[in-house]
Write a structure and sequence with these properties.
The complex is a heterodimer. Chain A is α/β, with parallel strands linked by helices. The longest helix of chain A is centred in the middle third of the chain and has 20 residues, at 295-314. Chain B has four helices and five strands. In chain B, strand 2 and strand 3 form a beta hairpin. The chains are: A alpha/beta, B alpha+beta. Chain B: This is BLUF domain-containing protein.
Chain lengths: 559, 147
């Protein structure tokens, strides 16, 4: 209810309205102008003396505060102004529900008071703050709201950490669904998922959509971990139930990562990161799984991160070396060439197995500069050898995805002066699996330059015979798993024989890898392999050992 | 607002826990809330249940069927919902919504046999009879398996 001026209140104000007291009466035109502005301004304005008496007020002031409420306000303001020598400003909520911003300025006669109704402005601000924290698609909170809520909780000494759980939910294959059903249905589905999550949590819990198809839940005031466990089970079930949306039947599954804040945990981002790690593990477990975060997950990620850091600088610090393993032609008993193999001697880790760092290098793309170094180094080294020997270099699918591969090879050959026919690229079928088919075109270009191409690890993976038809490989390398077991493994022997025959029919050389014993050598020879590679002939050797290896071998053969 | 007529057929596992008294309370609650909501949502159909499963036909405007199904999915009294059909249709096969017990248990028959009569359990026309037969068969078949 608006406060209306009462005739009997503020007698002074009433008289002053008609005629300002002498002290304030206009002496100069400028004063007259100021007075006129004062009287007509839209803000409520008044002048009170040091004793709190009202000397002058404009009509807006009288309209708003010309009642008991006004007196009470004046008393309060005087008290406060007396303590504060300078300008003051504060917000005051009045019994009629309106909020005013009240400013006081010291003037010669006492205080100038100006007040404006900020109720609508504040409500607008509150609405904007609410909107900035609301997800438009689901009506739930958004990431900002979620992080604020979580931070508040973690910093509140009253909230027992032992009763809090953080869950992140991610829909499996949502991107594909969104693409096939359309954005509108995708959004509607997110809305339904949000409602289902809301229906499964307690009233005091927080639910927000964090990004795309990822939701976050803060469970509070429940015994842990059993409550988070029960909620995760319920959510996996609930989210995985069929949806009817836009006239369609839709099935999705949700994966969940759960983290329980350790006592004293205050870092919201750290918690969210751990929840994501648990979520990642749940997704690996398959559709509709949930996992609790374990410190070991973090340790593994940290270990990976440190390995990546070391790996990234290993090249600059010249920690890589190439070693070379000979390949021997069984018919002529001569060395045809060497496979270049990458070794990493890390000062802190010691020798790191390629099995440990190559996958990470491929995943992070570090394989591109490392692979380039391998190509250039191997070409440079091989250029020093007898022209009879080729050098085989492994090139990964990731390198084939790099548009610069061909120019890198051309440049490596040109710099070293190596005959392109003496460079052999060993590729696995993963290179042939690329969806765009660019690898095939790259191989054709390299082939016209004279570069040789070998298919590595044949017999494992899909080993599609289609690859053999799609590209005329120079060589098929038979995976060592079939070679090693040949002494008491008739199936392995049969496979080696079949591949060797296939190679012969297609005019491709066949190399048996991993030959370690004379027995294995005899078998792969009788199975029809044209070349062998393995410890039986030599371990991989440093480049400076190649010359003596070859001369020793020649001497021995001559005897 | 989509008012195209749709028909949904599903069945699910009965997860009501407790003895006959608890079950009676829950079945009664399902019956009353369904009658109330379905009238309001312009939904017709039939709900068949026994101690093992629920099987239900819901017909009505698409939005009503979708909203009702969403509510059903969030109900903890059942699980493993299998949707058998969700299609647009020209006309209703059920003139009203009704509920009935179809199972082998004598005890349950005594407890819930009256519900069919009370809800005027009925089918309309050949299509209604055919669908009813399907869900009744499912109910009998799944009763032992789910329990």
């Amino acid at each position: 209810m608006p406060i209306r001026a009462k005739s009997q209140s503020l007698a002074l104000a009433k008289s002053s309205k008609r005629r300002p007291p002498a002290a304030l009466r206009a002496q100069q035109p400028a004063d007259a102008l100021a007075l006129s502005v004062f009287m007509q301004m839209k803000r409520a304005a008044a002048v009170v003396d040091h004793d709190g008496r009202l000397l002058l007020s404009n009509s807006v002031f009288d309209e708003l505060f010309g009642a008991e409420g006004g007196n009470a306000m004046l008393a309060r303001i005087n008290g406060e102004a007396g303590r504060n020598a300078g300008k003051t400003s504060r917000q005051e909520r009045f019994p009629n529900g309106r909020t005013f911003e009240i400013e006081t300025f010291p003037v010669d006669q006492g205080w100038l008071i100006a007040a404006g109704d900020v109720t609508d402005h504040l409500a607008g601000q509150a609405r904007a703050a609410e909107a900035a924290r609301t997800d438009g698609i689901t009506g739930l909170g958004n990431r900002l709201m979620f992080r604020e809520q979580l931070t508040r909780l973690l910093h509140n000494p009253d909230s027992a950490a032992a009763t809090v759980a953080l869950l992140v939910v991610d829909l499996d294959r949502f991107k594909a669904l969104n693409a096939s059903l359309g954005r509108k249905v995708g959004d509607a589905l997110l809305g339904l998922v949000g409602k289902r999550i809301r229906s499964a949590v307690a009233a005091g819990d927080t639910v927000a959509r964090l990004e795309a198809d990822k939701f976050g839940i803060i469970q509070v005031g429940q015994p842990q971990p059993q409550s988070a466990d029960a909620l995760a089970i319920r959510l996996v079930d609930l989210i995985g139930r069929a949806y009817l949306c836009d006239g369609q039947l839709i099935n999705v599954a949700g994966s969940i990562g759960v983290v329980l804040p350790s006592p004293g945990a205050q870092d919201c981002d750290h918690l969210l990161k751990n929840a994501d790690l648990a979520l990642g593990r749940a997704k690996k477990d398959g559709h509709g799984s949930y996992r609790f975060f374990e410190a070991e997950m973090d340790e593994r990620m940290q270990a990976r991160r440190h390995l990546e850091i070391d790996l990234r600088r290993a090249l600059a610090l010249r920690e890589f070396v190439l070693v070379y393993q000979p390949q021997v032609n069984l018919r002529t008993n001569t060395v045809t060439g060497f496979e270049a193999l990458l070794r990493w001697q890390c000062p802190t880790r010691g020798a790191v197995s390629p099995l440990d760092f190559i996958p990470l290098a491929e995943e992070t793309g570090v394989i591109i500069p490392i692979g380039e170094w391998v190509l250039r180094t191997a070409c440079r080294e091989a250029a020093k050898w007898s022209p009879a020997h080729i050098v085989a270099v492994n090139v990964s699918a990731v390198q084939f995805g790099n548009p610069n591969l061909v120019s890198t090879i051309i440049s490596a050959l040109a710099e070293s002066g190596l005959d392109p026919r003496r460079l052999e690229l060993e590729i696995t079928e993963s290179v042939m699996l690329d969806a765009r088919g660019t690898a095939h075109a790259v191989l054709q270009v390299l082939r016209t330059m004279g570069v040789r191409v070998a298919l590595d690890d044949f017999g494992t993976g899909y080993s599609s015979l289609g690859y053999l038809r799609s590209f005329p490989f120079d060589k098929i390398k038979i995976d060592q798993s079939f070679v090693r077991g040949t002494s008491n493994d008739p199936v392995g022997a049969a496979i080696v024989r079949a591949i060797a025959e296939l190679g012969q029919s297609l005019g491709m050389a066949t190399v048996a890898e991993g030959v370690e014993t004379a027995d294995q050598l005899a078998r792969v020879a009788s199975d029809g392999c044209t070349e062998v590679q393995g410890y039986y002939f030599s371990r991989p050797m440093a480049p400076d050992q190649i010359e003596s290896y070859l001369s020793t071998r020649n001497r021995t053969n001559l005897l | 607002m989509h008012s195209q007529l749709y028909r949904l057929v599903y069945f699910s596992k009965n997860r009501i826990v407790g003895g006959p008294a608890a079950i009676t309370v829950e079945i009664d609650s399902i019956l009353r809330s369904s009658q109330r909501n379905n009238t309001r949502m312009d939904i017709t159909g039939a709900l068949i249940f026994n101690t093992g499963i629920f099987a239900q036909v819901l017909e009505g405007p698409r939005d009503s069927v979708e909203a009702t199904f969403e509510k059903i999915q969030q109900d903890v009294r059942h699980s493993d919902v299998q949707v058998l059909a969700f299609d647009a249709t020209d006309q209703r096969a059920f003139a009203r919504w009704s509920m009935g017990y179809f199972g082998r248990s004598r005890e349950s028959q005594d407890l819930f046999g009256h519900i069919a009569a009370a809800t005027g359990f009925t089918t309309a026309g050949l299509e209604g009879a055919r669908i009813f037969e399907i869900i009744r068969d499912i109910a009998f078949e799944e009763e032992g398996r789910a329990a």
